[in-house]
Specification:
- 53% of the residues lie in helices and 19% in strands.
- The protein has 300 residues and is an alpha+beta fold.
- β3 and β4 form a beta hairpin.
- α2 runs antiparallel to α3 and α7 runs antiparallel to α9.
- It is elongated.
- The N and C termini lie far apart (119 Å).
Length: 300
């Protein structure tokens, strides 16, 4: 048996190398699956599981590459010259791919964003659901849907965009946003009372955000040179020819923007209705009169 195996290896070196390579790949995959099953119990409840999967997959792929070169290295020497001559042409043809790969490397180690972050990248807004070697996958927000909610479309953006356009991250370092609600009132409304009601409602609904937001803001101030900003709800008054406008400025969790605005709006309408005519909402209205109809009115 040993003599037959030895004779087979000497007579078929390429087939032998292929068999060894396949067996080594199977062995590595079995070891990777065993390790991942062990790690799943530890990381399944955290965001680190996604990163662990990526590292394991790419680590095994790199190992496959080295294994291929080691096993088939003697058979590839004849291609060295051809590969060297074609290198420049391939590099130029695949320049976008190379830049996207460099973008992936920068994303993974440059703290641009991570999976789960809400970003505006390459003109597309959404939550990052996957970071590939060449493209970042987003679950799209906005477009025909208002209030930062999902459209249902998946958007894939080339990683090269991080070098050519701004990257807006909605919740890195500071997962809160400032939002505003504008309330138009008649000039004869009780403006001080309306301001007091709006501010009280905001404090009741958004008060839970103040403490965690303050902690994150102080953490971010230690990292960046930024000025102090008030995290408490504020109401500002402005007016024009049509009505008085109360502008409520408040802080809100990035993923709860629309829901919080809905609760605040309903509470304000209810409280304004309770005070009756002291506070009246205003609106800008226009009346368009047809010219012929206007002439008939003049004759009558």
């Amino acid at each position: 048996m040993r003599e037959w195996i030895k004779h087979f290896i000497e007579a078929n070196p390429l087939i032998t190398s292929i068999i060894i390579f396949v067996l080594m790949v199977i062995l590595i995959l079995i070891i990777r699956r065993f390790i991942m099953n062990r790690l799943y119990k530890k990381f399944r409840a955290s965001e680190n599981w996604y990163v662990t999967q990526k590292i394991a997959r790419w680590g095994s792929n790199i190992l496959f590459g080295f294994l291929f070169i080691y096993i088939f290295g003697s058979d590839l020497t004849g291609f060295t010259t051809a590969i060297g001559l074609a290198g420049a042409g391939v590099t130029y043809a695949l320049r976008e791919v190379i830049v996207s790969f460099a973008g992936w490397f920068a994303i993974m180690f440059g703290d641009f964003f991570k999976t789960g972050d809400r970003v505006l990248l390459g003109g597309s807004k959404g939550d990052v659901v996957d970071i590939g070697v060449l493209r970042t996958t987003l679950m799209e927000l906005g477009e025909w849907v208002e209030g930062d909610q999902y459209t249902g479309r998946i958007v894939r953006v080339a990683n090269s965009y991080i070098f050519t356009s701004p990257v807006y991250n909605y919740n890195t370092d500071f997962k809160f946003l400032w939002d505003e609600l504008h309330i138009p009132l008649h000039f004869d409304s009780d403006i001080p009372l309306a301001k007091e009601i709006v501010l009280q409602i905001a404090q009741e609904i958004i008060g839970d955000y103040n403490e965690p937001a303050e902690v994150e803001w102080q953490r971010m101030k230690r990292r960046y040179r930024i000025e102090h900003a008030s995290l408490k709800s504020q109401v500002f008054v402005a007016f024009d020819d049509n009505f008085v406008t109360l502008s409520l400025r408040y802080i809100v969790d990035t993923h709860e923007r629309r829901g919080v605005k809905d609760r605040i709006s309903i509470a304000i309408l209810k409280r304004f209705d309770e005070v009756g005519e002291r506070i009246e909402l205003a609106s800008e209205s226009f009346e368009i009169v047809h010219e012929e109809r206007h002439r008939k009115r003049k004759k009558n």
